[in-house]
Amino acid sequence: MDFRVLILAVSTITVGLVELVVGGILPVIADDLGISIGTAGQLITIFALVYAIAGPVLLSLTAKIERKKLYLITLSVFFAGNVMTYFSPTFTMMMIARIITAMSAALVIVLSLTITARIAKPEVRAKSLGYIYMGISSSLVLGVPLGILITNAFGWRTVFLGIAILSVGSIMLISTYLEKIPTGEVQPLSEQIRALANKKIVFAHLATMFMLAGHYTVYAYFTPFLETTLQLNQYWISICYFLFGLAAVSGGAFGGGLASRLGSKKSILFILGTFAISLFVLPYSTVSFPVFIVIMMIWGALSWALAPPQQDYIIQTDPVASDIHQSFNNSALQIGIALGSAIGGIVLGHTDSVVSTATAGSGIVVIAFLCAVVSLSMAVPAKQPQHKPNQVRYEER
């Protein structure tokens, strides 16, 4: 694997940790700042909303800045946001810090994706993107338990100080090993927004959104699912989360490798179809704990497997506007997470059965599958250029 891709993946882990790390330590934060847990929960909500919007907007506003320079500037802002969080004396100050870290994290993630797409050889591009998504997924999965562990040992503020220190390490690695990368072909903001008129790409974004929505319809309520269906205690619930996390971390690499072997289009349909089936059979697998573990780990691995072939497909479909589409796709992912959590809550409230979230989630993934079919069946717009100006590779110095 290209060492530069590994560095970018490490950076995505660093910035990704900050999003959900507060989820497991909300009571501690609320107590320290003198607010309710519900109010503290807004720290997650505001981050997700800002993150979803900031990626495409900031990518457009910074389109003329050389990519390595922009990456280092953004990581520096991210560092400052975490230091600000560490010293925040009030909830308001911490909210401002969360907005800063959300904006900078969103730009770092999308830059990691777009730079990887440029420096990777075409035949391993999907696999390389898989490593980036493995970094994103691992940070989201491991953030909560790491946050709890560090908080119990050193206090919640140390969590953000640690993330700030890790970002300094990323700055040093990027500064040393990543060469300067020109901006490539720069499109005006109006043109980039107009790129959404490409319905083929829009349906690809919808497929991403609905898949994550289906996933989080179940995953957001996974603890009560385990308690209700398997009567597990906290120890075994922790074991399940750990195994799920291991599978999820491998999902990005699996999706990238699958796309390299089967091609992005076939991989997208295979992953979505298998994912819908795994969610549907999940409640029925609880008749046997070993069988449940197998199905759960398949679900976990597939939950982050779509992104690499999807990104590769987007690049192939609209190479000129691929940067902005990669950013939009990342935003669709965030919207899907928020949408799925909300749908799961509604389903749970109306049925009083946590098992029904799996059925609902499977149905939502079927919608994602249909969106993918529509996208793949559409012809590339006639005006689509055949060259790939944004896909220039930059070899090692």
- The best one-word shape is globular
Order of helices and strands: HHHHHHHHHHHHHHHHH
CATH superfamily of the largest domain: MFS general substrate transporter like domains
Number of domains: 2
Content-based structural category: mainly alpha
In terms of quaternary structure, the protein is: single chain
- Specify Rg, calculated over alpha carbons: 20 Å
Q: What is the averaged pLDDT score? A: 84
Main β sheet profile: none
CATH classification class of the largest domain? Mainly Alpha
Helix content: over 70%
The CATH topology of the largest domain turns out to be Growth Hormone, Chain: A
Q: How many β-strand stretches?
A: 0
Percent strand equals under 5%
The CATH level-2 architecture of the largest domain is identified as: Up-down Bundle
Figure out the total of helices. 17
In whole angstroms, the N-to-C terminal distance is 16 Å
Given as residue ranges, the uncertain stretches (5+ residues, pLDDT < 50) are: 384-397
Verbal overview:
This protein has 397 residues and is mainly α. It has two domains: 1-186, Up-down Bundle (Growth Hormone, Chain: A); 194-380, Growth Hormone, Chain: A (Up-down Bundle), CATH 1.20.1250. Helix content is 79%, strand content 0%. It has 17 helices and no strands. The chain has helices at 3-20, 26-33, 37-40, 42-61, 67-87, 91-119, 125-154, 156-177, 189-194, 199-219, 222-230, 234-262, 264-281, 289-303, 307-317, 322-351, 356-377. The longest helix has 30 residues, at 125-154. The relative contact order is 0.15. The model is unreliable at 384-397 (pLDDT under 50).
